[in-house]
Amino acid sequence: MLESTCFPLTIRWYETVDPTDIRNGAAVMDVISLIDKNYTKLSKTQQMVAEYIKKETVIASYSTIEKIARAAGVSTATVVRFTNSLGFSGFADFQTQLQEYLLRQTDKINRHALTNKLVARYEGISTSVEEELNELTKKYISNINNTFKEIPIEDINKVTESILNADRIFVAGSRTNRSSAEYLTFSLSRMFGNAFYIESDPASFPEILSGIRKNDLVIVFCVYHYLINTLRLAEYAKMMGAKVIMIQDANDKKKFDFADITLYGYCRTNIFNNTPASLIYISDIIIGLCSQRAQDRVKETESKIRRYKSEISKEQRFYS
Q1: Residue 303, CB half-sphere, CA atoms under 13 Å: how many?
Q2: What is the rounded CA–CA span in Å between residue 241 and residue 245?
Q3: Domain containing 174 — which CATH number?
Q4: Which among 9, 122, 185, 269 could disulfide-bond with 62, CB atoms 3.0 to 4.6 Å apart, if both were Cys?
């Protein structure tokens, strides 16, 4: 069975292969199974070589004998004796069979991806990249986990009910927040047909605010509190009688009097900018709960969308 973990990459190739193969006209075990079968017969230093090759099969298939010896903590002579103990004529013979063995596994994985991996690992350029990706991924996962732990169930329920009971839903967010705001707007609009994305542009405030009514809902994504225009929009909407929901960065839990409900997502990263990952996660929670609690409305809207798509498709064929 192929086992793979992303960071760092670990592949147990030997569990995916037919244990027999043809080499020099004779049936022999595949390379990794051959190592396992003869493991107890190897000396302690040869076992060190075996462990390294099983752990870093890809690297070993293209590394020099000197690199393998250094990585395993043994001499090059020990590596040669290890290959001889397995029945190979020498290191070159062993490595050739190891390469062929790996190439036979590419029917179950992407051959191009494997080739890139081989080259990158052999040239020694991927280890630091993997470590960096690992750290970034850990941070993103940590942000989402912390966001999940600290979201009050009561507040999520209130947000869900506010969306379902609103006449119209206006969603705002700029800069880092824009992608989250547009994603939530699109999803709510697709489900209910009454959600609209609004620009945090003071020039358009009069037109936007003049149309806001008491039973409308305004959702504002605002990770950065220096985005004054976004905050002003939320404050003005509250003055017009709308309910206001703020979604902010949990690392700076500033309270705004005009917000009826505030949800917090952890957005800090190890790089120069904040990430919207936890904001998207909050959006997904909201979307999921709304779709579950208003299934009939969602089905009705989807039916209309399909009907409109069908009509548009007919018109396109007519005019083409």
Answers
A1: 6
A2: 13
A3: 3.40.50.10490
A4: 122
Residue 139 forms part of a structural domain? no
Q: What is residue 127's three-state secondary structure?
A: helix
Which residues make Cβ contacts (< 8 Å) with residue 16, sequence separation at least 6?
Answer: 1, 2, 105, 108
User: Tens digits of per-residue pLDDT, 51-88?
Assistant: 999 888 877 877 889 989 999 999 999 999 999 999 89
Structural domain boundaries, residue 289: 149-311
Token pair of 241 as six digits: 């009688």
User: Which residues are registered as beta bridge partners of 5?
Assistant: 10
Asked whether residue 49 is domain-assigned, the answer is: yes
- The proportion of the chain whose per-residue pLDDT surpasses 70, expressed as a percent, equals 74
Dihedral sign, Cα of residue 32, residue 37, residue 39, residue 42 = negative
Quick one: 154 and 118 in the same domain?
Answer: no
Q: Retrieve residue 25's tokens.
A: 């006209």
Cα–Cα distance for residue pair 217/159, rounded to 1 Å = 10
Spatial neighbors of 242 by CB under 8 A, at least 6 apart, are 170, 212, 213, 214, 216, 217, 218
224 Cβ contact list (under 8 Å, min separation 6): 175, 176, 177, 249, 274
How far is C-alpha 295 from the chain's CA centre? 28
The residues, ordered by sequence, that sit 6+ positions from 88 with a Cβ below 8 Å of its Cβ are 94, 97
Per DSSP, helices labelled H in the chain are 31-38, 44-55, 57-62, 65-72, 76-85, 91-103, 111-122, 126-150, 153-165, 178-192, 205-210, 228-239, 277-293, 295-319
CATH of the domain at 110: 1.10.10.10
- Residue from 151, 152, 124, 154 nearest 278 by CA: 151
